[in-house]
Protein: Cytochrome c
Amino acid sequence: MRNYDLVFLKKFSMVIGFLSVVTIALILAALYLNGVLPAERDPAMNRITEQRIAPQGAVYAGQTGAAQQAAAAAAAAAAAASQVAYGGTTDGSVIFGQLCAGCHGSGAGGAPTLDRAHWAARLPKGTDTLHKHAIEGFTGTAGVMPAKGGNPALTDEQVIATVDWMLANLK
Ligand code: HEC
Structure:
């Protein structure tokens, strides 16, 4: 072989070697970037997701959604309040007026009214017993007292407060 052929081969293999290194570096860089960048989502999937979250998304869509947001908040508050009778009040007069007075106002079904005479035989039982009978219900000689006046959504505290209010307002 002539001398300048050897020189050419040497340079040529150096260039090939350098290009191979560049190729491998590019492949590795591409693999790395592919792992780092977020995967592109199928536009059809995006459409389906948007449709699915539209009801909630609309509520928070700025000014246009303000009305729905207020309506949703009001609905949530109403749902929460309906879990607790009369908004959870322990004001006996409110609960008595709205529920117990149905029987205890008129004496319907033998219910004792707020007339002190109707309570002469009941007061000696003790307040605890009267609380218990109002919460659990009571059937005596006069008639049937339904548990919690027939509204199981009342808490024990609400019933107790109402009985106390009744006893404090006997005439
Ligand atoms: C469906 C009618 C009715 C409603 C509603 C009702 N009661 Fe009565 N309640 C009665 C009757 C009837 C009696 C008398 C039972 C008896 O002594 O035979 C009575 C008795 C009672 C007594 C006396 C229990 C005893 O041991 O003597 C208390 C206290 C009482 N009710 C509290 C309440 C309270 C508080 C409410 C509302 C949360 C209420 N009631 C709602 C019908 C009712």
Q: What stands out?
A: The two ends are 132 Å apart (CA to CA). The first strand starts at residue 138 and ends at 139. The chain has three domains: 1-39, 43-83, 86-168.
